[in-house]
Amino acid sequence: LVGVFLTFFLIASTVKTIRETRFAGSGLSATNTITVSGKGEVNKSPDTAKVSFSVRSEKKVLKEAQDEVSGKIAKIKTDLIAKGVEEKYIKTDSYTSYPQYDYNQARCYSSYCPPSTPTLRGYEVSHAITLNIKNLDSVEAVLAILATNTVTDMSGPNFGFEDDKMVAREARDLAIADAKTEADKLAKSLGVRVVRIVSFSENGGGYPMPMYAKVELGGVAMDMNQTTPQIPVGEQKVTSNVTIVYEIR
């Protein structure tokens, strides 16, 4: 009975050890290893675009500046919603108001110059907004709306993905598959077999970089007879590079 018990105990311990060796970082020291690299690339058309803009006004009276900015923003918002931009994707980044001063230098006498006295010129109000455009066919129409409503400045459109991590994972999965294939080929050439993963690292992060399209508006209203800016979307390449260390026997 003792012999049977010891036999079952040894079999269970052996099976447990074999299973542990299948996993990376199982605590067993790897004496023989190979290191392989893999690369994965995903080419996809962006599914979202971001456009940031601001409206500014300077008036003698603070409320007049606020009212002018609010009126312009309300008009822009109405036009954007009419073009299919959802209200939840029209987000305020900042709203600021500052007094503006003129500094007149007093007349200097010999080597002495009295300090200048600031004079209140008025108040500047600025409202900055970022748009998330999901229908990329409407990007050019959005730019036309912003130009027609004479926004103070604008940046974008910046093309990217709503779920960057999902696209990055696709590229990483391809890179891992590439590394596995390379490991199998190398092990075959060496006459050994791959036992388990010892370590894994990813270089470059795998996250997509946004594509920028520069459009100059200059704060001037766009003539409706002029051609609307043409913004090609194209495709975006997402790359992942991985390095995997395998134990071999």
* Number of helical elements: 4
Task: Outline the low-pLDDT stretches.
Answer: 212-226
Percent range for β-strand residues = 35-45%
**Based on CA inertia axes, which overall geometry fits?**
elongated
Intertermini distance: 36 Å
Annotation, overall tally of beta strands: 8
> Strand order of the main beta sheet, please?
3-4-2-5-7
| Mean pLDDT across residues | 82
The residue fraction in helices comes out at 25-40%
Q: Briefly note the structural class of the backbone.
A: alpha+beta
CA radius of gyration: 32 Å
Order of helices and strands: HEEHEEHEHEEE
Biggest β-sheet, characterized? Answer: 5 strands, antiparallel
Task: Report on this structure.
The chain has 249 residues and is α+β, with helices and mostly antiparallel strands. Helix content is 31%, strand content 36%. It has helices spanning 2-20, 62-82, 139-148, 164-190; strands at 33-44, 48-59, 90-104, 117-133, 153-160, 194-203, 211-212, 236-248. Strands 3-4-2-5-7 form a five-stranded antiparallel sheet, with helices on one face. It has a three-stranded antiparallel sheet with strand order 1-8-6. The chain is elongated and about 105 Å long. Mean pLDDT is 82; it is low at 212-226.
